[in-house]
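Dataset card, provenance and construction

Sequences and ligand SMILES were collected as paired inputs. For each pair, a complete structure of the chain with the small molecule in place was predicted and serialized as structure tokens. The example below shows a pair involving flavin-adenine dinucleotide. Curators did not alter the output after generation; any descriptive sentences attached to a record were derived from the structure itself.
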Amino acid sequence: MAAKQASTRSENGKVRRVIVVGGGLAGLTTVIKLCEAGVPVDLFSLVPVKRSHSVCAQGGINASVNTKGEGDSPQVHLEETVYGGDFLANQPPVKGMADAAPGIVFLLDRMGVPFNRTPEGLLDFRRFGGTLFHRTAFAGATTGQQLLYALDEQVRRYETVDVEDERGIVVPGERMVRKFEFWDFLSVVLDDSGISRGIVAQDVKTMEIRAFPGDAVCLGTGGPGMVFGRSTNSVINTGTAAGSVYRQGACYANGEFIQVHPTAIPGADKLRLISESARGEGGRVWVPRDPKEKRPGRDVPEKERDYFLEAKYPGYGNLVPRDIASRELFLKCFHEKKGVYNTKSTKNENEVYLDLTHLPKEALRKKLAGILEIYEKFVGEDPYENPMRVFPAVHYSMGGLWVDFERASNGSLVMGSPRNHATNIPGLYAAGECEYQYHGANRLGANSLLSCIWGGMVAGPALATYRNNLDKSSYDFPQALFDKAAKREQDRYTDILKMDGDENPYRLHQDLAEEMLLHCTIERHNDQLDRVVAKIDEIEQRARKVGVTDKAGFANQGAQFIRHLGNMIVLARVIAQGARNRDESRGAHYKPAFKDRNDADFLRTTLAFHKEGQGGGTSTIHYARDFDYSIAGVPIHITDAVDIGLVKPRARKYEQAGAASAAATGDIKKEDKPAAKSPAE
Ligand SMILES: Cc1cc2nc3c(=O)[nH]c(=O)nc-3n(C[C@H](O)[C@H](O)[C@H](O)COP(=O)(O)OP(=O)(O)OC[C@H]3O[C@@H](n4cnc5c(N)ncnc54)[C@H](O)[C@@H]3O)c2cc1C
């Protein structure tokens, strides 16, 4: 579809805006690309944009710039990403991302991101999991913060730029970006044809509920880590926005693929990540050979240590992909009972050592200070002198809202196609962790920041084309459409405030999270998954009998949490039921009873549609093998087949790869450079 020059104003004279929900990397990039295309934006965020969860990202962002002359390239990046994701990702979007990555890092560098540099002044790159190349650009161990702040600055600039009409005349009082912080997205406004015409949101301070027109809507609302209770995610990451539009008819894809990161530390509120960059810089994972060992880690002699990842994966060593590393840690700690002895406990704890003490302190300070401070602060031990104690934690969702793409003849994407990043609800788009597109069954470290920014760069032009080709602007729809949508949400909220049952919503969330954490993460068994799904049904019923913990008319987090809980419950079902259905092992989804990948039956995308429980019944899921949707009036037929046209699927064999580079564990104090090898070897 060729982009028309759309008018700035609707028929009735209103400035035609697009709505972006989410001020993380994906949302901010989408906003910037829309502004570059001359499209005014309303930006909504639950928290201040600069507190979006992207700010927590530590280790870096991937781009095959190949400054170290290892032979890395976008083609190898593409291959390693789809190989690491066990071939479940559609390959054209991944190719687009890998091709664009070097340009994205250079762009961020020009925006002022303080990336670490080599002594010669070049951008420095570190190793991350699932590759033998130095592909990860980084700003110490606070990369997410630096990227978020750089993009935030660009968006702030647009908050001061006047909207101009198509003749270049300033529209008085209208700026390119209007920002709505502390607003909770509730739902999209759907017209009679099921097309998104705007959103309903709630001001979480005044609790006012309002409908906002928007010619298109893009969600960049992040992941659903809170479904598992404690995770490495921020506590606002409930997935509520994705859950809400899923309930409105949006398809949710590959929900069962949840990444567990191998190295995190406990905390009462959340689990704090110790980034893969620690291993990228030479950190080594080990447990004492003697499971009864009681000496502190630093006193255990070298020959009495079991570097189990290095032993089993001589090429990748400590930097095998996360699904594999987490499973190995789980095996060591839970099945073999060889976890690190914890003096505060009478039994072995599920922890292993992550050791940096052999590396020069100065270099550690320069490259990893951000995460080492976190460890010292929350554990109370000096990680420069003591091996850190870590264990796996829920970290990332590969699954998310289903989004489309249009394949170009070169195997990449048709930029500007309104299909790119479109959900099956016309006019609703998604980018970033809330969608499923780039990582297949397992995400490689440092590919998420990239997919968020690239996703925004693709979604922005797609939204602009969609908006510019609309026959009728949302701003020309009768006000009654928006009033009705707002009233529906207001009524729901009023009903929540009246809830006076015995169930405590926070307790219910704990019950849900515990089930999900115990039975739906590293190892999955069908009998347990059946019980989890039954438990979710039970929790859904009990959630109808909660008592609201707060009836205040201002900043009422208790009532808000009840709404989020409802959306977490439906997402939990998508995750657990999807896991139950997939009788194979692929990437992060591992069933001991079905140890192999089964391409014949399962090299396909899980496409889930919500069916709300009627008359007090529990909700269910309809799984589709194909469906139809339309974009700007053009009908499109979708199937669950994965586009594997660029890299042919083959078995993952990280044990055998790159054995020549066994000694390579990172940059600091490293004599042997890793041999540059692609996973094809
Ligand atoms: C500790 C940690 C470290 C990580 N390190 C790395 C790394 O080094 N490299 C890498 O590639 N990846 C990393 N990741 C993953 C990466 O940080 C995330 O996947 C990514 O930042 C997600 O960005 P996003 O833009 O999709 O969403 P987010 O940054 O999560 O932003 C979501 C936005 O949506 C808004 N929002 C959410 N719900 C609502 C609602 N209901 N209404 C209104 N607004 C809403 C929020 O306010 C926020 O602005 C890390 C993850 C964690 C947990």
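Derived descriptions for this record:
The longest helix spans residues 557-581.
Confidence is low (pLDDT under 50) at residues 659-681.
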